[in-house]
Amino acid sequence: MTVCRRSVRNATHGAMHRATHRAIMRVVGTTISCALLAACADRAPATAEGTGTTAGAPIDPSRVAAHFPDGWRLPAGARATFAAQAMAVSNSPEASAAAAEILKAGGNAVDAAVALGFALAVAWPEAGNIGGGGYTVVHMADGRTAAIDYREVAPLAATRNMYVDANGKVTDRSIEGHLASGVPGAVAGLTALLAKFGTLPLARVMQPAIALARDGFVIDTALAGSMERATAMVTRNSQGTPYFPNGTALAAGARLTQPDLARTLQAIADRGADAFYTGWIADSLVAEQRRGGGIITRADLKAYTPAWREAIRTTYRGHTLLAMPPSSSGGVTMTEALNIIEQTPATPAYGSTRWFHLVGSAYQRAFIDRNVKIGDPAFVTVPLAQLTSKSYAKALAATIEDTRAAATKALEPAMAQAAREPEHTTHYSVVDAQGNAVATTTTLNNSWGSGVWVRGAGFMLNDEMDDFAVQPGTPNMFGLVQGEQNAIQPGKRMLSAMSPTIVLDSAGQVLLVVGAAGGPTIITGTSQVILNVIDHRMTLADAMRAPRVHHQALPDSLTYEDGGIAPAVLDSLRTMGYGLRKQRSLVNINAIMRVKGGWEGQPEPRRSGAAVGY
Ligand code: GLY
Fold this sequence. Notes:
16% strand; 7-stranded antiparallel sheet; disordered N terminus; alpha+beta; globular; 23 strands; binds glycine
């Protein structure tokens, strides 16, 4: 059985559209109806968001009813999408359907995840990509676990101060335009992943993506809104894209075909990653770089290699977490925060002052370390053992006072300022009938990356250079201030917050596959879904709908979702000394959870997406 959903666009991004049509897709004999639900509005009733419920799905009796504050816009008690055997969840219905097609054709979760990754490059071009990079954590049913790092690297001609002008001021060239891009890693990463753990040929798993690019698909309100918001930025940097014919974004209901991208994907399908890194696609990329003053060369592309890494293996209250190690800060920071929280034996009730104080204090301390101690392990020493150790967490937990928030500056006077990272990335989760699981987070950094589209090859390039500390110790125009560990060096990977994570239950079976988009909120959001499932025994639907909070040390405040903390609790937190920052919504998460008889999949209820399974 397959159920698909499409929900509201993240309302913080402003555009308000009311869906007017229903997209029908056929996937290997199964009709998937994607209702484009009326809802895209800041103040749209939460009930309009669509839930992807499946009649007859088993209800897990071990889960406990959740209670959210009055007026919270995502009510408790919804049901996630159920599938008995296999499931894929992403921000794009077309990409999730591509994964389901491969699963049904006999592929395993890795085959399906790679299919999904390439399909996202077509159907979710704001963040799905071949011009960016990402991270994947894999857990195979036979016990093998792996992590692959295909983060972009700084070009060989990159220099420490390349984004600082003659007056010592940080420019915006790390964010937009040709100079903003790191050397893309996605094609190398996805093909290496498939070669090691997949079962189907690359050409087969790429077939749905090629068809989507060649034959096109109908743009929905989510993608139309994303394009509309990106119009000025992309058209300033790129001409001739299929997204903005005559300089105007395609509207919902229009068909988007991407013939150049189809040709590029076909070449990769035929020749593997070499086609991208050494063939005519590389020529197109380098020519595009030259056109706009970028510095990526053929030598950069030829030298790119993904890195297989040992996943961080940690525990939380009897569960095992498999998480992404550096060059992402995600797994380390999440581990440190969860270890601190674990020091409190009886978890405070969800939504209580004590709960927010505990998680806020844990995140604050973990981010103090994150912002100054982590960088690319090929270039700097990362104190991994210390940051992930239970004894270190115990010492940090002891600094949490019962009734008072600590000032970040008092906790660590020498620390760097916190990073406010760009917020557009995308995560997908896939499981199969054997119990293999894949968690992948991928990004162009900002939505639509650098705004640069590679002419002739048809894909967007990232602006990942901005994830470096472009001038260590000094805020850049986005408030990004990080330490020396993350300074620019040629060939170095910029620090990330991406946190693809797989949680195993006490029997060693996959329980949860989860990860997120949202810069530093990736870490806090992903870990809160884990906490909601393990500590609060919520269903997946509730765990994903529960209001979220975020603390990243500096700014020294607890960010919360509007309506997500009860007024009395807000008053208590204020009295304890918390600075409180309200935001419409936090984090874009896509997750799968094992339930009795199968799997539940839940795309982000605050954004768009689909859980597709059978
Ligand atoms: N570009 C966002 C991240 O890697 O954390």
